[in-house]
Amino acid sequence: MLSAFPIFYSALSHLIAYGTVTLIGYIVALCVYRVFFHPLAKYPGPLSYKLSGWPLLWQAYTGDRHIWHLLDHERYGPIVRIAPNTLSFNTTTALNAIYGTRTANVKKGEWYKTFDIAAGTYSSFTETDREKHAIKRRWMSPAFTTESIKANEPLIIDIIERFCETLKPNSGGWGDKWNAHLVSVYLGFDLMGALVLGSDLRSVQEKDNRDLAECVLPTQKLLYWLSYLPVAFLVRPFLRSQWFEVLGGKPVRDSNRLIDYGKDQVQARLTSNARNETGFKDRIDLLSKLTFNEDKKSGWRPSSLDLDTESLNMMLAGADPYSQVLSGAIFYLVHNPNCLEKVTAEIRSTFASSQEIVSGAKLNSCTYLYACIEESLRRLTGVLSHVPRVVLSGGMTIDSHFFSEGTVVGVAQYAIHHNADYFTEPFKFSPERWIPSPTNPPSAIDEMRRAFEPFGLGVRGCIGKNLGYLQLKLTLAHFLWRFDLRECEGEKGVGAGRKGLGIGREREDEYQMWDALGGVRDGPIVEVKSAR
Ligand code: HEM
């Protein structure tokens, strides 16, 4: 009996030795395959990207992914292999082929599935199945018609005007300093709370709901990083668990409170006869429009989980990019005083009173305002990095290259929006590039527009695009009509690039973002003075 132990240990050590050799052999073989024999082997990129997806995970963790995409395209050209099975493109033709056409033989990648699953199911944003997504999109479309947006406009203006009242200095001089990033987050949250849920969250004015607004970016950053884990599918079921609350801390607890708040709003609408009760029947918020709606074509009706998830999705998808573009526009305007002066003069000469600032011909005539928004959208972009699409059965051709089923392809907004082939002096904030002139003919602007996709494109493009534009136009027009704006003396450069901040972050006139689907950002610190 005693003599059995040495035999057992000898067998075990042999087993471990064979196992280790086999594992090393497998890894070496996999590396050789990925570098030399993989169908994407001929595409350029750093060796580390070809070997594994870990560099992408690291870039997502540090928030520098968009910068690496740009630098990699500058170094390796229009097609870069950014992971063993993933290609990034940087051409308008690829942009259109992958996202722009209804017939593109792709679907959203599994990567999306991590984002709003904590609310219970997949939303229109994270649904990867093309048929199920088409049904959701049709179901949601009545909430985003011109009439629906017009009906909500007084609410938008009311919240913007209250925002302006809160910032108004008490004296005739310059008021208190404020962080444009934080204030934009609160305003975006209040706007979407009102538009999606019909709630008056008042986080601009009061502290009560600010934790909910402030949790969005840190939670998104954590989810973004987790979504790149090779084992993300194992993590997803725990995203609403206490385990995840411990890992994510306060932002995740607050995010769960936000999900619960949305669920309560859904339940309030679903309870018996809520549709006809006073207080609900006349409501025009997006959730009320969707609760009892169905997809006319398939007859699909949303479950309460669908409504929970979609209301959270609309809150987050609507609030954060708006806030990002708003604080970015403020940054670029205070850093470019000529542009600030021009846009302010245009708004003040177009409208005799703030009551006149509504959608319509006069607002549309503010071409410089629109150009400032376009240029801010170009510099900031809605989603910074490569948004993955997976090639479906039958494969597809992009830029004359054929790719088989399962290849992951995409374009990174930050990279294409700063591609010098399409945008001259891409790091210059220049609203003028969007305005036709003898030196800038409409054909040149059309050419640029083909590389411009701040709201995404095609069937998976942003359903809230028109609403987003309207909110941005109304906010900047009301705000600049009422106030002179400047960056605070002594607080200059908050949010800007500087030497030593990291690779690609040295430009002092660039608003810095740390990639987390949208961008984590800060500043600028500004102050206002009443103009009248
Ligand atoms: C400045 C404002 C906004 C920007 C820059 C923006 C940007 C984007 C982008 C780039 C996408 C595509 C993302 C991808 O393919 O992964 C997207 C999708 C989406 N956005 Fe927006 N968005 C804005 C405002 C809004 C608003 C106000 C709403 C509505 C409440 C909204 C709801 C959505 C939804 C539901 C999707 C998913 C669409 C689908 O896959 O069918 N967005 N947005």
Which features would summarize this protein structure in a list?
532 residues, alpha+beta, Cytochrome p450, 3-stranded antiparallel β-sheet, 21 helices, 12 strands, 51% helix, 8% strand, binds protoporphyrin IX containing FE
Write the layout of secondary structure elements.
Blueprint: H1 4-37, H2 47-51, H3 54-62, H4 65-76, E1 79-83, E2 86-89, H5 92-100, E3 106-108, H6 130-140, H7 146-167, E4 178-179, H8 180-197, H9 210-214, H10 216-227, H11 232-235, H12 242-248, H13 250-270, H14 286-291, H15 304-335, H16 337-350, H17 361-364, H18 367-380, E5 389-391, E6 396-398, E7 401-403, E8 408-411, H19 413-417, H20 442-449, H21 465-482, E9 483-487, E10 514-516, E11 518-520, E12 525-530
Parallel strand pairs: 2-8
Antiparallel strand pairs: 1-2, 3-5, 4-12, 5-8, 6-7, 9-12, 10-11
Helix pairs in contact: 3-10, 7-8, 7-21, 8-15, 12-13, 13-15, 15-18, 15-21
The structure holds protoporphyrin IX containing FE.
Residues 124-125, 137, 313-314, 317-318, 321-322, 325, 382-383, 387, 454-456, 460, 462-464, 467-468 line the site of protoporphyrin IX containing FE.
In short:
By secondary structure, the protein is an alpha+beta fold. The chain has helices at 4-37, 47-51, 54-62, 65-76, 92-100, 130-140, 146-167, 180-197, 210-214, 216-227, 232-235, 242-248, 250-270, 286-291, 304-335, 337-350, 361-364, 367-380, 413-417, 442-449, 465-482, and strands at residues 79-83, 86-89, 106-108, 178-179, 389-391, 396-398, 401-403, 408-411, 483-487, 514-516, 518-520, 525-530. Strand 1 (79-83) and strand 2 form a beta hairpin.
